[in-house]
Amino acid sequence: MSQTAPETALERLEAIRERMARAAGRIAGGGKAELVAVSKTFSPEAIEEVIVAGQRRFGENRVQEAQGKWPALRQKYPDLVLHLIGPLQTNKAREAVALFDVIESLDRERLARVLAAEMEKQDRRLPCFVQVNIGAEPQKAGVAIDQTPDFVALCQNTYGLDVVGLMCIPPIDQPPGPYFAQLAGLAERSGLQKLSMGMSADFETAILMGATQVRVGSALFGAR
Ligand SMILES: *Cc1c(COP(=O)(O)O)cnc(C)c1O
Fold first, then answer.
1. pLDDT digits (tens, 9 = 90+) for 14-31
2. Residue 153 · residue 142 · CB < 8 Å
3. How far is the CA of 181 from the centre of ligand 1 (A)?
4. 67 phi/psi in degrees, rounded to 5
5. Is 200 in the pocket of ligand 1 (CB under 6 A)?
6. Which residue, 193, 204, 206, 216, has most beta carbons within 10 Å?
């Protein structure tokens, strides 16, 4: 076992937190980015190791998978915060609103309408991020850049959703910095405070560009 390759969940978590702090230290007023630990595909046992190491905020990308893993963990650790970071079908909105605490994949009007109705019904007003298709990639989810300000306003004003920020997944084959910077500019124009951007490969860059939360999976849990 190499001394520099972190092996336990606690060591991996501490290494990521240290890298986050170092990146935050390089920007004015830095240090505010939160870690969302992306636990998709990992077992409740692997997740519990990370919880025991001190992490409380997690992200899952599929409602059905999350339903199988999280209710028992939530019962045992009531202070967990669970983010939905993957595409949401409207027919899963009821389950999503019941299980998650934050929705990061708000990307179309029909979903906004259904989510608003479910939140009202369940009396759970969840903070939402609007997902932006920052690289204008046809295969990717997200609102087009030029439609983002109007869509944010629609979600807030017509549907009364608590839109707190923007989320993006930049193209994998290009330097992410300019995309993160563009998302930050878009959020500012809409008066939004939060930016969900940066994953295992680029979370330090995202923090330098103003990320308030990074979504880190494989660097914490191992390869999927
Ligand atoms: C899987 C996933 C992540 C984490 O990716 P890693 O490269 O494993 O850190 C972040 N965001 C979303 C939306 C994901 O689906």
1. 999 999 999 999 998 766
2. no
3. 19
4. -60, -30
5. yes
6. 206
Please state the pTM of the whole predicted model.
Answer: 0.96
Question: Which 3-state string (H, E, C) describes 41-92?
Answer: CCCHHHHHHHHHCCCCEEEECCHHHHHHHHHHHHHHCCCCEEEECCCCCHHH
- Which among 12, 35, 61 is the best mutation to test ligand 1's pocket, defined by most ligand atoms within 8 Å of the CB? 61
Q: Are 165 and 196 in contact (CB under 8 A)?
A: yes
Ligand 1 centroid–CA 121 distance in Å is: 31
| Amino acid sitting at position 208 | L
Token pair recorded at residue 194: 């939060």
Residues 147-173 have pLDDT tens digits of 999 999 999 999 999 999 999 999 999
Confidence of residue 112 (pLDDT cuts 50, 70, 90): very high
Three-state SS annotation for 143-188: ECHHHHHHHHHHHHHCCCCEEEEEEECCCCCCCCHHHHHHHHHHHH
Distance in angstroms (rounded) separating the CA atoms of residues 163 and 156: 6
Q: What does pLDDT average to over the chain?
A: 95
Coil, helix or strand at residue 213: strand
77, pLDDT greater than 90: yes
Cβ of 215 less than 6 Å from ligand 1: yes
